[in-house]
Q: What sequence folds into this?
């Protein structure tokens, strides 16, 4: 059985790592890894391959940055001949980035089955490019692996047949658990001169927050306020850095550098690798973020998370986890931070099936279904003939 796995951007790497590892345990699976190159800097991609021990990609498409249409189109153009050559039984895509949709679309048009990991999540906000990617990827996927009950509900409400939906848990949590021993040994706290439980971590990269300068200025004002009591560590995404460079009025509260974190203020730095970042989050007093994955990681680690967005596509992190959706108003953020700092740290309660075993469940489903399908002459779902084997 041949499986082509697609990665492209930073949040894909921690999802594909445990899947590749699990696939390689099965002698009957030929697992091919394709990296689209949507993210390409060492700090956004290469460091994650190393930290998560992901095998080097068999194919690199080197698509790089560009508009949505450029990125999506280039991935499709460059992936199509690879899929035609490899003729896999299934293409596995993860998450909701442009590479996810582009690869799913390329495979579906070649009548190759698509498995979407992290299917069914919905923010119901179509101004987010990720929401468009999620809706379209799910609409053309054959195997929809969901991380939480809401994913299943959303897919059923969209008319997806129940037999395509598999509630398997969360592969990101597989990565977090598998590498716990490694990130627990990270020396990032010593390097930055930080003490456990006495600092905050911030990440921001959503276009709605960082491309809109009045919103970004409001957020930095709120963070500066918080940083009067607790130092804030802020690994800065390249998109965010570009915007920050245009607002010099915050230079007095934002220090950009590599050395120890000052006892007050916002310490900005280049993006950091997976292991150091997990260590920073696991030892923080609180996290403020607009990332999706970090809402999930803080839930499992029991670290309070304030999500600087108006919605979340991961409601289980609010109902079961440590997440609160606080939006981008500076007054609301400072009030919510004050509340978090008054309360004791919550006990971590992992949502159902976030137990580090999701990739095993996914690979078991794929093995069973693809074997069955290869035995029967016609596809159950599409009525299309089986594809020629290599
Ligand atoms: C992408 C994903 C987003 C994900 C995020 C994680 C889409 C639509 N968005 O957003 O869902 O949460 O990745 O980071 O797929 N750049 C570099 N080096 C890199 C990569 C990017 O400097 O290695 C810069 C480029 O200037 C680029 C900008 O960052 O224009 C944005 O990169 P892009 O991949 O287009 O979108 P992200 O904001 O990273």
A:
């Amino acid at each position: 059985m041949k499986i082509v796995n697609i990665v492209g951007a930073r949040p894909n790497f921690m999802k594909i790592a445990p899947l590749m590892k699990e696939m390689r345990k099965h002698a009957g699976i030929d697992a091919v890894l394709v990296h689209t190159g949507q993210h390409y800097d060492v700090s956004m991609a290469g460091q994650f391959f190393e930290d998560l021990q992901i095998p080097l990609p068999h194919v690199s498409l080197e698509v790089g940055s560009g508009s949505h249409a450029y990125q999506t189109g280039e991935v499709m153009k460059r992936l199509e001949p690879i899929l035609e050559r490899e003729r896999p039984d299934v293409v596995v895509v993860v998450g909701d980035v442009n590479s996810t949709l582009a690869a799913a679309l390329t495979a579906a048009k070649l009548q190759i089955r698509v498995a979407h990991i992290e299917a069914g999540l919905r923010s119901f906000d179509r101004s987010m490019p990720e929401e468009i990617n999620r809706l379209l990827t799910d609409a053309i996927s054959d195997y929809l692996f969901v991380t939480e009950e809401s994913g299943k509900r959303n897919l059923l409400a969209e008319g997806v047949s129940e037999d395509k939906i598999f509630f398997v848990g969360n592969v990101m949590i597989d990565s977090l658990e598998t590498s716990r021993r490694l990130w627990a040994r990270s020396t990032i706290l010593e390097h930055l001169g930080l003490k456990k439980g006495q600092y905050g971590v911030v990440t921001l990269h959503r276009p709605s927050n960082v491309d809109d300068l009045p919103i970004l200025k409001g957020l930095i004002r709120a963070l500066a306020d918080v940083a009067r009591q607790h130092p804030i560590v802020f690994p800065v995404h390249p998109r965010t850095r570009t915007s920050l460079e245009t607002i010099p009025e915050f230079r007095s509260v934002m220090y950009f550098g590599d050395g120890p974190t000052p006892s007050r203020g916002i310490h900005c730095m280049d993006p950091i690798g997976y292991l150091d970042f997990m260590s920073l989050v696991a030892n923080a007093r609180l996290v403020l973020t607009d990332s999706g994955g970090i809402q999930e990681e803080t839930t499992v680690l029991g670290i309070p998370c304030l999500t600087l967005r108006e919605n979340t596509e991961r409601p289980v992190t609010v109902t079961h986890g440590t997440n609160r959706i606080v939006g981008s108003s500076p007054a609301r953020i400072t009030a919510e931070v004050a509340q978090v700092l008054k309360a004791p740290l919550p006990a971590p309660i992992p949502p159902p099936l976030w137990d580090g075993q999701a990739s095993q469940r996914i690979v078991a489903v794929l093995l069973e279904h693809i074997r069955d399908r290869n035995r029967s002459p016609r596809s159950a779902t599409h009525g299309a003939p089986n594809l020629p084997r290599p």
Q: What stands out?
A: The longest strand covers residues 2-7.
